[in-house]
Each structure stands twice: as structure tokens, then as C-alpha cells.
């Protein structure tokens, strides 16, 4: 089947409200994003109640703006795709309720999208010709997983974090260093003026014969280091901390690729925006003769274009839920 059509994509799983309009699976007619970071920053993380309220306040306006930019109305939309999980329950409900209302009112299909699949599909926006098999390194605020994707619907998780996710490690580390939320961009910025080899933080499970991760000890080690060295240079600590996270990610995913005889590695999720990770992965790929793929930096963190793209895949393959589709706050990557 090769349908043509316009997908309205909606993202509201955490603290970004996103609305995108995708034509025929490739042409992004509009991609709107409203970040709530300023409302959450003073709390050092996302406050679920504030997140739901802010989604509710802005989502209709964002849809209007996206339609206007695309030069169309609701009647031109062929299907509506929204994040059904994982994420914050109240936040997810806003996007899902709005999407189902549009689906019901205009009698068009509703497609529930796994947010994690969305992150992976962000790669196909940048590289439309990309075809499996590949190894995927999913590194977001809540997830760190290595996935072996043999075909679009044939994939398996071959490694994951035993405790904190990579993005969580950045967020918690930034808090210890007195840097702003979200921690990833703050640590990246601070690291620019630091020496990444100045402090040796632990790289847990590196060199072990598995593809699992553990980041909670790293954050504790940073905490103790800063307690014992209150005058330490923040940029050196940030750079060394980033070095520890990035090195272990690069080493694990390349080993996973080698072990599975695959030389294409896709990165996905907010941490894939990290400049140092992109450089180190590129360097290693060059050395090994592998290829690494990263979505555009703006499409690594939460957005609706990736949801529309993953929704497009489901639409093409008739994987369309009815209006009884619920929200699934703990949805795993292995569920479509
Ligand atoms: O994928 P995402 O937008 O949301 C989730 O689905 O979790 O990821 C957010 C995470 C946050 O933990 C944030 O600190 C991290 O991605 N992040 C980064 C960078 N930009 C965002 N981590 C490292 N370097 C960055 N440049
Ligand atoms: Zn995300």
C-alpha cells in the first residue's frame, strides 16, 4: 500500500507542545513547538500539573498556526497522529483528547504513536532513504536503550540502563553543578571552556561484555567530588562529566553494532543533540568504517514532526487505532 496524504502530528508527552503537518511522508509543511521550560526551570525539573495546564492553554492556538502556515484547514487533513505514551499522564491526555476530537469531528483516522518510535523516526525525516538493518542508540530524558532493528516492525532491545537514563544523568549532574534545567544543553555549554580529562569520573559497565548502562553512580561521584572540592572549576567538572557519559555511550553502541555485524548506527532522543556525542561518534565511525546518523539537532528533542513521521509509517501499514486508544504513561519501546 502506498497512500498519499496529509498527517497532522501532535506531541504533548512532557514539557513541549508540538504540532506538525507532514505531506506524503516527506514534506514538512509546518512544525510548531511551544516549550514550557521557563515555567518549570525554577523547580529544577518538569512539574506534571503545570505541564498539563500549559499544553491545554496553547494546543489549539498551535494547531491553528500550523494549519495557517500549511495553507490548509482541518478538512485537508487525512489522519491525525498523536503521542499515546510514554510520558506524563495528564500531558499525554491533552494531545490525545484533542486528536481524537479532530478525528471524530472530521471523520479521519486517529493514530496513536509511541513517543520513542517518534524519536527513532526523526532520523527518517533527515535521511528519507535510510533502510534497516541498523543499531539504534536511544538516549532521551527517560530512556537509554540499544535496539537492534532488522526491519521497521522487527526490532529488539539488546541493552538498556539499569538505573538512570543518559538525559537524566545530564539533568541530575547539572543540578549538582548549579546549572539550569534542562541539564544536557547547560552541561554542553559549560563544557566548551573545560578540560574533559581533568577529572576521572567512573564510566560504569564500560568494557563489560553486555550492552547495559548505569549512570546513577556517576552522578553520586560528581556530588562527592563537588563536596570535597567546593572551589572546583565548574566547566572542568561539566566537561569531565560529559566525557564520562558520552564515552560509555559510544563504546557500548559501537560494540553492539560490531557484535551484530551491522555498520549503521542511528542515534535518537534528546541526548543525540549533544555536540560532543556527535563528534565522538563521527570520529569512531570514521576509524571503524561505520556510518552514524543523527536527526537534525532541533528534531532530537521532543517535537511533533517525528510523531507525524512515525504516524505516517503506521498509516501506510494500516496500524490505526480506534478512538478507544488510551494513553500509556509507561509504554515501552517494543510496543508499536
Ligand atoms: O528526548 P527528550 O527531548 O525528551 C524525552 O523524551 O525524555 O530528551 C530530553 C533530555 C533531557 O534530559 C535533556 O537534558 C537532554 O535530553 N538533552 C541533552 C541535550 N539536549 C537535550 N543532553 C545532552 N546534550 C544536549 N545538547
Ligand atoms: Zn522525548
Describe the structure.
With 336 residues, this protein is α/β, with parallel strands linked by helices. It folds into two domains: 6-120 and 302-316, 2-Layer Sandwich (Nucleotidyltransferase, domain 5), CATH 3.30.420.40; 128-299, Nucleotidyltransferase, domain 5. It is 42% helix and 19% strand. It contains ten helices and ten strands. The protein has helices at 37-40, 48-70, 89-106, 115-126, 166-176, 183-191, 216-228, 234-259, 275-288, 305-316, and strands spanning 6-11, 16-23, 27-35, 79-85, 110-114, 134-139, 144-151, 154-160, 264-268, 291-293. The strands form two sheets. It has a five-stranded mixed beta sheet with strand order 3-2-1-4-5, with helices on both faces. A five-stranded mixed beta sheet has the order 8-7-6-9-10, sandwiched between helices. α9 links the parallel β9 (264-268) and β10. Residues 14, 119, 140-142, 167, 170-171, 182-185, 188, 269-271, 273-274, 301-302 line the site of 5'-O-[(R)-(carboxyoxy)(hydroxy)phosphoryl]adenosine (KG4).
Amino acid at each position: 500500500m502506498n497512500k498519499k496524504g496529509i498527517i497532522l502530528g501532535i506531541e504533548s508527552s512532557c514539557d513541549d507542545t508540538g504540532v506538525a503537518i507532514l505531506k506524503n511522508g516527506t514534506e514538512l509543511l509546518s512544525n510548531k513547538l511551544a516549550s514550557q521550560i521557563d515555567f518549570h526551570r525554577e523547580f529544577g525539573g518538569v512539574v506534571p500539573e503545570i505541564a498539563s495546564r500549559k499544553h491545554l492553554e496553547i494546543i489549539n492556538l498551535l494547531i491553528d498556526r500550523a494549519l495557517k502556515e500549511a495553507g490548509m484547514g482541518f478538512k485537508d487533513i487525512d489522519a491525525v497522529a498523536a503521542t499515546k505514551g510514554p510520558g506524563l499522564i495528564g500531558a499525554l491526555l491533552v494531545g490525545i483528547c484533542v486528536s481524537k476530537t479532530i478525528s471524530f469531528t472530521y471523520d479521519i483516522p486517529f493514530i496513536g504513536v509511541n513517543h520513542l518510535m517518534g524519536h527513532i523516526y526523526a532520523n527518517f525525516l533527515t535521511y528519507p532513504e535510510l533502510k534497516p538493518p541498523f543499531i539504534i542508540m536511544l538516549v532521551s530524558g527517560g530512556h537509554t536503550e540499544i535496539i537492534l532493528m532488522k526491519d521497521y516492525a522487527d526490532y529488539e532491545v539488546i541493552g538498556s540502563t539499569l538505573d538512570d537514563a543518559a538525559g537524566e544523568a545530564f539533568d541530575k549532574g547539572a543540578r549538582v553543578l548549579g546549572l539550569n534545567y534542562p541539564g544536557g544543553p547547560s552541561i554542553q555549554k559549560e563544557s566548551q571552556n573545560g578540560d574533559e580529562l581533568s577529572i576521572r569520573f567512573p564510566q560504569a559497565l564500560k568494557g563489560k561484555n553486555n550492552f547495559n548502562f548505569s549512570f546513577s553512580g556517576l552522578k553520586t561521584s560528581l556530588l562527592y567530588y563537588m563536596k570535597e572540592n567546593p572551589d572546583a572549576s565548574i566547566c572542568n567538572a561539566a566537561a569531565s562529566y560529559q566525557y564520562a557519559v558520552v564515552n560509555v555511550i559510544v563504546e557500548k553502541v559501537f560494540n553492539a553494532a560490531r557484535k551484530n555485524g551491522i555498520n549503521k548506527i542511528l542515534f535518537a532522543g534528546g541526548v543525540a543533540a549533544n555536540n560532543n556525542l556527535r563528534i565522538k561518534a563521527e570520529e569512531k565511525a570514521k576509524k571503524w568504517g561505520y556510518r552514524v546518523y543523527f536527526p537534525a539537532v532541533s528534531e532530537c528533542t521532543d517535537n511533533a514532526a517525528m510523531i507525524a513521521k512515525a504516524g505516517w509509517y503506521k498509516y501506510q501499514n494500516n496500524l490505526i487505532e480506534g478512538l478507544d486508544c488510551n494513553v500509556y504513561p509507561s509504554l515501552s519501546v517494543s510496543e508499536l
